Amino acid sequence: MFYPTELLRREGALALVWMAANVEKKLTKAQVLQDKIDEDISEIMRPRVPLSLRLSGSLLLGVVRIY
Q: Where is the Rad21/Rec8-like protein N-terminal domain (predicted)?
C-alpha cells in the first residue's frame, strides 16, 4: 500500500471521504454538510504524492456517497 497517512488520519483532508466509502453509517449529517466536495475531488485528482488505484477508487466512491 502506498498512500500518505496524513490524508487519511482522523483530522486529515480526506478522512470524511474515506469514512463515507468504508463506514458510511458512522457519518453524521453535520459532518456531511460541512465537507467541501470540490476540495476533496481536487485532492484526489491531483494528489501531492501518488495514490494507489484502489485507494483513489474508494475515495471517489466516498465522494459520490457524500454528494
A: 1-67
Cell readout for 18 is 474515506
Instruction: Name the pTM for this structure.
Output: 0.84
C-alpha cell at 53: 488505484
Q: What counts of helices (H) and strands (E) characterise the chain? A: 5, 0
**pLDDT category, 2, cuts 50, 70, 90?**
low
CB neighbour class for 16 (10 Å; exposed up to 12, middle 13-18, buried from 19) = buried
The 10s digit of each residue's pLDDT in 4-28 is 777 778 888 888 999 999 998 988 9
Instruction: Please state the domain count of the chain.
Output: 1
